[in-house]
Amino acid sequence: MSLEKAKIGFLEAFGTEPAGVWSAPGRANLIGEHTDYNNGFVFPVGIDRRTYVALSPRKDMLCRISSALDAKTYEYEISKKMPKNLDWALYPLGVAWVMRESAKSGFDAYIVSDVPVGAGLSSSAAIECSVATALNEIWSAGKSRQELALIGQQAENEVVGAPTGIMDQTASMLAQKDAAVMIDCQSLETELVPMGLSSQGLVVAVIDTRVAHRHSDGGYRSRRDACEKGAKKMGVSSLRELGEADLPQMEEKLDDVTYRRCKHVVTENRRVLDAVESLKKGDLARLGELLLQSHASMRDDFEISVVELDTAVELAMEVGAVGARMTGGGFGGAAIAIIDESKMELLREHCKAIFAKKGFAEPNVFSVAPSEGARKDA
Ligand code: ADP
Ligand code: MG
Asked: For 260, which of 9, 12, 252, 335 is 20 to 30 Å away at the CA?
C-alpha cells in the first residue's frame, strides 16, 4: 500500500520516521476541457489513485525531497534561489517556494504515487496538493483549500513553466467521495454534484493510451494563445463572455483555426452546464451524448486528440459504454468512459486486442471511483 511505502521510503532515505503522511488524489475530468484558463466551467472527479508525501520538518531551512521515481534527493534552501536541474522535484519544491513566506523550517519529504504520470489524470496536481497540504499543516500557514489549490497552480505555472489552469488543483483539493465537482473557474465557486454511479452498476473507466504528453511543450501553449487571440478580436476579456449565439459573428471575425479553437471553448462551456443538469436529473444517457460531443469537438475543432484516444473512445462505445471522451490536456494521455462495471473486462480485452492490431502501445485500462480530496493520512 502506498501509504506504507511512503513511510518506509522516508525511513530509508532519511533514517527516521516521518512526522506525518499526507495525500491528494489525481483527477479525471468528466467534461470541460481547456475551459479553465478561459474562465469557464469544468466538471472533474477526484480519483482513488493518490500521491502520498511522508514529511518531517527540519531544524534548518533546507528542503530535501526524494521519491520512488528515481534514487536522487533534490534540495532547495528557503529564501535562496530555486536551483536548476531539479527535474520532477520542481513540482513539490516549487510549492515550497511559493509558500516560502509562511515557512517556519525546512523539511525532508518522500513521495510515492499511484497516479499514472503524464496520463492526463493530473499526477502533477496530486503531487502539488499533497505537498501544499503537508506544508500548510507543519507551518501552521492557515490557508484554505482553495488557496492551496492556487498555490499548486502557481508552482506549476511559475516554477515548472507549464501554463495550466486551475482545474486540476481545485479538483485535487476539493473533491469528495461519490461526487463530481463543478468549478466555475471565473468566480472559483464550486458545487459538489452526487454521481450516483455505483447504485446503477456503473463505473468511470480510464483507458490510458500510454502516449506521453508534456504541457510545457508547444501544443497546450498554442491552444491558449489561440483562445486569447480570439477573445481579444471579439473584444471580450475571456471566452467565458461569449455564448453559442455569438458563433456566427465569431465565424465572420476570426480566421478559420482561431474560430474552431474558440468554438470548442464556447460550446464546451454549455456542455458542462448541460452535463451538470443531466447528472442532477439522473439522465445518464444525455450525459453520455455530451461526452461524445465533447470528444468530437476536441478532435475536430480544438485538434488536441490523437488516433489512440479516438480509438479508445470508439472501442468503449463498441462494448456498450454510456459515453466516452479523451480527458486532460490532450496530445496523449487517457480517455474516460462511463460504463457498466460488468463490462470492464470486455473493455480491457477489446482495447488490448485492437490496440495491438493497430500497432499501438498496450493500453492500461482500469476503473476509478470518485474519491475525496487532499487529506492527512497518518
Ligand atoms: P499529468 O499531470 O497529466 O500526470 P504532467 O505533465 O502535468 O502530467 O505532470 C507529470 C509530471 O509531474 C512528471 O513528469 C513529474 O515531473 C511530476 N510527477 C508527478 N507525479 C510524480 C511522482 N510521484 N514522483 C515524481 N514526480 C512526479
Ligand atoms: Mg498535470
From this structure: 335
Query: Per-domain residue ranges for the chain?
Result: 2-193, 196-368
Grid cell 470541460 — which residue? Answer: 32
124 Cβ inside 6 Å of ligand 1: yes
DSSP H helices in the chain: 2-14, 90-98, 123-138, 145-154, 167-174, 218-233, 247-253, 256-281, 284-300, 307-318, 344-357
Looking at domain 2-193, its CATH architecture is 2-Layer Sandwich (3.30)
State the sign of the Cα–Cα–Cα–Cα dihedral 343, 345, 350, 351.
Answer: positive
Q: Enter the pTM of the model.
A: 0.94
**Measured CA distances, 276 to 159, 181, 213, 373 (Å):** 34, 9, 28, 20
For 110-141, what is each residue's pLDDT tens digit? Answer: 999 999 988 889 999 999 999 999 999 999 99
Choosing among 3.40.50.300, 3.30.70.890, 3.10.20.880, 3.30.70.370, the CATH entry for 196-368 is 3.30.70.890
Closest CA to 164 of 204, 202, 221, 108: 221
Among 214, 208, 211, 182, smallest CA distance to 195 is for 182
Which three cell numbers mark 306?
490523437
- For residue 25, the ligand closest to its alpha carbon is 1
